[in-house]
Amino acid sequence: MALRVFREISSAHLQPNLLSFSSAISACEKAGEWQKALYLLEATSRARISPDVIIHSAAISSCEKSGEWKRALQLLSTMPDVQIHPNKVSYSASISVCQKAWQWQWALHLLQLMPAAKVLPNEVSFTAAISACEKAEQWHWALELLSSMSRHKLCLDVFSCSAAMSCCEKGSQWSKALYLLRSMPHRKVAPNLFSYTAAISACAQVQHWKFAVQFFEEMVSRGICPDNVCRNLLLDSISNQKEAYALFKSLNVDG
């Protein structure tokens, strides 16, 4: 809709303003049309319009959704050249695109740059960086970032905790993954399916099936419906065939 209106404005030889550019670039962002978003950003200078931080952040977000991490970082780095100070949205979108592109070192670098740029990281920034570490199995960094969130007095949520848990599980740090699950209620965070699946997967790696069953039953008692991935991980945690068969029958009856 916004793009259509923008085209109509242009075809009618009317001068687009900052708002029309902003709406059109935001529409490109939502549609994942990063090339069009960057074209419109460049068109602002031809229209003698000074783009603001909102337009730049929307353009970065369009790159994020398309995995164009190098272009996103280029946009972020050139913002000061046009007297635009990046904000939390700009940095968080850039960290997120690095996370999706498996560029965990760049994600950490951007997070570390934020205080020097007088931009305080928020929950979104940290969670994106933790997720980047999860993909790269950098569990040391994931735990450090989680601790850093507490030091910054930021609220931990189920996404940041679960991403750190999954990172520990992938890094064969099963005891740390279980500790994080057990610490979530103390942090006033309710575990979800992803949290319990990460814990059960960690137990399956070392065949601690009793812990796995305990977490599975706890999850069900909380009203969280396990999926097939979670059920299969539970069965994988059991080395004894008779016990696995008995559990398999009970899962089929219950589920």
UniProtKB/TrEMBL annotation:
The lineage of its organism: Eukaryota, Sar, Alveolata, Dinophyceae, Suessiales. PPR repeats lie at residues 17-51, 52-86, 157-191, 192-226. PROSITE patterns: PPR, PROKAR_LIPOPROTEIN. This is Pentacotripeptide-repeat region of PRORP domain-containing protein. Signal peptide: none annotated. It holds the Pfam family PPR. The keyword Repeat applies. The keyword Heme does not apply. Keywords: Repeat. It comes from Cladocopium goreaui.
